[in-house]
Design brief:
heterodimer, A: 246 residues, Rossmann fold, 6-stranded mixed β-sheet, 4-stranded antiparallel β-sheet, 9 helices, B: 420 residues, alpha/beta, abc type-2 transporter like fold, 2 domains, two-stranded antiparallel ribbon, 17 helices, 6% strand
Amino acid sequence: MSGMEYLVRLKELVKDYGGRKALDGITMQIEEGEIFGLIGPNGAGKTTTLRIISTIIKPTSGQALVCGIDVLKAPNEVRKLISYLPDEAGAYPNLSGEEYLKLMASFYFESGKEIGEALEEGRKISGLGERLKEKSSTYSRGMKRRLQLARTLMVKPKLAILDEPTSGLDVTHAYHLRNVIREYARTHSTTILLSSHNMLEVEHLCDRVSFINEGKLVESGSPQELKSRYGAQNLEEAFMKVVGVA
Amino acid sequence: MAKEVKDLLRDPKILVGMILFPALIYPLMGAAMNISTGSVIETASANMTIYVIDDDGGPLAFTLKEFFRGGNFTVEAVEGDPASMAASLQGGDVLIHVPSGFSENITAYRRADIGIFVNFKEFSMVEFIKAGRAEGIVRIFEGAITNALISNAFPISQAEDILNPVKIDYNSVIRGEAQPINPETLQNTMRLQGAMGPIVILLVLILAMQVAATSIAVEKEAKTLETLLTIPVSRLSILFSKLIGSFTIAFLASVATVLSFSYYFTTVLGTATVDQGLDLSVLGIGPSSTGFIVLGATLFGALLSALALALTLGTLAQDVRGAQSLVGVLMVPVIMPMFFIMFGDMSSLPTALQTALYLIPFTYPMLASQALFTGNYGMVFVGLAYMAAFTFVTLYLAAKVFSSERIMTARLSFRLGRTK
């Protein structure tokens, strides 16, 4: 497969925080249209990897390409293609949910028609109905996360980067969000890169996954491949075998 | 930028605390003072009873009582020990004791005693004003007697010439031209009119810096910064939006405060300033349009550099409270020049202190505001060039921080500059 067929390519990515290596030579590729999961325990380097691809932080060495564009050389171009949902994302508390979605859409689109369409899409994805007219400061954690997922997907990015999208949510909200992600990726051919330490969730959602541990990528493949490769019942068990605990 | 201004204006803390509160506080203070002063004046100027123990019974004691009647007093004759009698009166009542020999002493060119007893019960303003009214009548009486005695003793002279034998003709030479103005009046006028400039400049700088310093911390607190950094908008656009947003809020807050303060100044303190109303522009030392342009340029430069410094410093804070504490550090160089320039004279300061003040860019708008009246633009023009360089450097630093990951990762710790 040639380089241009991958939507995301990471080559020997290293991130050194003054003596502490958060990433230690990560190399991986994500194909267009797939849901790709980055799995690992807390502090493994998942968020650092996503932040580099999202142009928030810079790698100490190595290369990260989105649609063949180097995140270091042309970050503004990369930002036009991606939409990022941070692990802990908030909205502006003095704006209503709808005003927030409209504001964020205006950064991606110029014409009122396009902004209106994105807003309508956001309304649908969030499923918040009339509550969208209320200030976001009145929302529960689950509602805030729905709003953020709507904000991330409504702009129809080439690559949606979701950092722990269902972390800390109750089963109802988590279920809604997982369905939206799966449905959206299928209908819009959007590539999704998500991180999670909930391996069972990833197993049901992702086409391919990579295990990351202590800044290193230790294994990659489809959930089915990984399970059969390590003779595991589920991804959690496979991960434990890969890192040598089980 | 629209997002920045809109979001700031929707924040009740900013809208109420920085715009509505300053806009209302001075008129409310003025209204409260007007109401209480009005009622005090009304009470004090109404007809008032004066109690008089006349142990003299002479013609001048009679004249004094007539003076009181002419001053809207009702004179009530009483007898007995003055102190005991005064103690039995109402709060604010005044008793005059005219001792025996009062008229005789005055007509014989000897100093005559008179006793004024004021009964204070609440020590209120009304009681003090009543006491002052009574003394005022006694002083008018004294002036009339003085003139009468002098005219009697020196029939060929004017009493005024004997009382004030030396008359000073004041002249202030301004821009080479002698003007019949008392230097004290000139100083008071210039101080009064010149004080407003530095105060407003200080206000604008402090407000703008506070908004700027907290703008990134607000994003961090609301967990919106990470998202903001990934939207398809350049980091420089974010920086300039924050600068313009902070400037707009500071400008609105300053306008609200200045209008409110001016209202208070003219309605409450207006009567006190009428006497100082010299028209400086007629004397050739009023503000010129060039002066305002220079002031505007220095203020713009100072604002830009202050905002850039505050924004950069604000990125180190994790929350709004931290940002407010950090920006407190910048308040010292902002406030110092104002104190030295408003209450002193730069040229009379020690050289080291002068140099230190000239190195602070916020000194120059203060100097420019003073130069509006003095016309001394020498150091202001030098300062403009210095400020341009300083502003460029601060903006460059802010742009570097904004375009790097430090905006996310910088933390202020005991080891400054280390990143997480």
